[in-house]
Amino acid sequence: MKKTIYVYVLETMADWELAYVMPAINQAANYNLGEQRYQLKTVANTMEPIRTAGGLTVIPDCTVAEMEGEVAALILPGGDTWPEAQHLPILTKAVQYVNQEILVAAICGATLGLANMGMLDNRQHTSSSLKFLTGFSEKYQGRQFYQKELAVTDQFVITASPAGALAFARDILTHLKVFPEPMLTPWFNYYQTGDEIYYFQLMALNN
């Protein structure tokens, strides 16, 4: 049975921040890795369509109240509304999942949501900037754990800068073992550098 990776969708969602990780998970079956172990599901507070920052319309697969089954991860993309109370249900789920040692991955503005829940107070993390967290979250107490990196993984939480979509994807794929290491390295290097040598390495591993 496939485990579910939930992707939270919200108005003004920064859709480009998911542009590496979602296709990689969905297309893993194309790389001769055996049976696909994960399914992606979009989730929101309601079943109403949402409009992303890039102008895409997304209809959620389910609501937060309907999240169930074997869960592998929860991915939280950026957006302009994370300080709002409407996101408390999914953030409550995030706390529950981490307590169950289920991965929660947040990028850009979503890290503010984690900060407001106290999830960054005792683990290494990153965000848009330290000033972003201290300036917009009155509850944030994790200054000493802040890392000026594109992506950071600690204690079942991945956080990433808005400029770190590729590193964010790499860390999620690594944690979930979507690709074996010999395949993940050329995959990351190709998108990071554009050098065709890594593309051919990736294709060779797929034969």
TrEMBL record:
InterPro entries: Class_I_gatase-like (IPR029062), DJ-1/PfpI (IPR002818). This is DJ-1/PfpI family protein. It comes from Vagococcus allomyrinae. Residues 3-174 form the DJ-1/PfpI domain. It holds the Pfam family DJ-1_PfpI.
